[in-house]
Amino acid sequence: MMRALLRWLINAIAVWVAIQIVPGIQAEGGWAVIVAVALILGLANAMIKPLLTILSCPLLILTLGLFTLVINAAVLMVTSWAAGLLGLDFMVSGFGAAFWGGIVISIVSVVLSVLLADDKRRERKR
Question: Is this model's pTM higher than 0.90 or not?
Answer without folding.
Answer: no
